From TrEMBL:
UniProt keyword annotations, A-Z: Hydrolase
Gene3D superfamilies listed in its UniProt record: Hotdog Thioesterase (3.10.129.10)
Domain Thioesterase: 59-133
Top-level taxonomic group: Bacteria
Name of protein: Uncharacterized protein (TIGR00369 family)
Keyword Chloroplast: no
GO molecular function (one): acyl-CoA hydrolase activity
Hydrolase recorded as keyword: yes
Coiled-coil regions listed in the entry: none
Lineage: Bacteria, Pseudomonadati, Pseudomonadota, Alphaproteobacteria, Sphingomonadales
Matches recorded under InterPro entries: HotDog_dom_sf, PAAI_dom, Thioestr_dom
Amino acid sequence: MAAEPVPDVSGADAHARALEALYAEAPINRLFDSRLEIVSPGVSRISFTLGPEHFHAAGAVHGTSYFKMLDDAAFYAANSLVTDRFLLTTAFNLFFTRPLPAGPVIAEGRWISGRRRVFVAEARLIDAEGEEAARGTGTFMRSQIPLAGLPGYARG
């Protein structure tokens, strides 16, 4: 019987898996039921499940959760193109289009422009019915923080 092929985990694929591990290791993500996937260079997807613990007083998801999901998706889309340094969010604009109830949400991030020092990426939140609930655009700048030194970022 032939052995299963070993997946090639080098280059962009290794960087993508390392970013996914970095996301999972971040302490803030212990507060959310979420999982990052780097779909391809410049594209990310985060699956979230939101519950009543994320609600404001009127019974819908608080804006801080929108921001976190949008910022993370845009950030990881941009950082998937940078293999040596951690990016930092320098600005973020978001637009709320509908309230989110408890349940599953997808944050889709996509790099728009920039390849040297400043990157621009956008993200959108898609609710369980497939409707857009929010959209945002961020700018991200290279930091002096090496990715290789961060807990969870291990390129195998």
